Amino acid sequence: MVDNTIHEKSGNAFRWNDMRIEFSPGDTVAAALWRAGMTTLARSRKLHRHLGYSGSFTTGVLARVDGRPNVRLDTTIAKANMMVETQNTWPSARFDLLGLAQLLPSRMVYGGFEHGGWMPRSGVGYRIAERIMANLAGVARPADKDLRSQAIAGDRVALDCLVVGGGPAGIAEANRRALLGKDVALVTRGGALARSASAMGKSTEAVHERVRVFSGMELFGVYRDGNLMVGAPHDHETGAVIFEPGEAVFATGRRSIPPLVKGNHLPGVIDAAAALQLMAVQGVNIGQKVAVLGTGAETALAERLRALDVNVVHVGRVEQLVEIAGRRRVTSIGVPHRVQCDTLVHAGPWRTDPSLGFQASADGLFQMQARPLPARIQVVGAAALGDEPIPVHGDIHQDTLVCPCMDVTAGELFCHVDAGETDPEVLKRLTSCGMGTCQGFPCWENMIALLAARLRREPRDFDRPTHRPPRRSITVAQAAGLAGLVEPDR
Fold it and tell me: What is 56-113 written as a DSSP string?
């Protein structure tokens, strides 16, 4: 087994809710906390459920770092003396009285506090209630006043081709076009290229020297039919970049969708990519007893994890899963027999995040609808393989979370669907599903799968809610640094 302890006490330590946490050089904050046994990193917005590093739900890794709120711990490199605090707790992270909201009847918080039937609608009462709800939802503490407030200068890059995605398909496509003499840039969210492939022990080709690589950067917005694409680095001290490509290639791959069963939000439920990142790259033991479920890739993934000294106690198909049990972390799963485990790694169903393609093609007046991609944008690699269906059990538990960040359950969705509302865009607005930092993925995948199953129709029969930029975080300082680099729409 991978040893999660750091044997030599050193100055490499940060503070986590007033506790000293040691880290190894190169650790992300999330990896260091997991190694130290801290798997609950955040709380859900309304009911303050325990959330952690899952690879799926961004809210699970958001925390306050050195006075700055909503920092992603899975992309932030740990530094000595860094101050990291849990958000959305009161009076403290160790004793969160707001968690008592879980004792409320479910229907009292359907639709979020904003749409609650007991909220005042106007006047002084509304203003007071709004302030109370803001505190309960954890959005009342802005960044410390002494933090840097100046704009961080951005850049504008014109080029022949922009490749989005740093996996094997993205590297191959960037190299092919570079060899044709084109000016090519490659944007990848990872700090290194081909992270998942390398973690699986696969070799990949080196990137051509003529390809400009923007690593550690998330492409968050596509504008003007794909003529402008904007990315922000995970490092909030670095400026954002406006790309002006002649053509673009989306090689963004596919992500594993969390299983649609009760308990899918628990710390210890983690997707294949995040599990491999922790084990193969960070050297962090993901659990004492690990179950691996998938739609075909589970055997190969389990073999790789075993090669990394992971104790895999169960391998099976994800559609066999009926429940994930636990309170603060996974304790067992039902497949349907009971399997004791503290970590569940899911490898499927695999689906492509459609947000960039939607932004590049969508059109409409009252509601945006996806159209075919412009001819100048190509999709390659796993992203071009299509989406796998999401299993939905006929007797799905009403408390199954569809959107853990916003505490949207299957029961809440069914309440609206059974009353006659079947438009995903309207369901999004009524429930706030997908309106957190995930910006609809994977939450809308599960919402539409549930809607289709409830009505005995196909998911393709429904239009998606609108994917608006920014799809991932950009700071105000980074956004301000783009002023003057692009002309506003007239």
Answer: S-GGGGEEEETTEEEEETTTSBP-TT-EEE-SS-SB-SSSBGGGGGGGS-GGGGTT-G
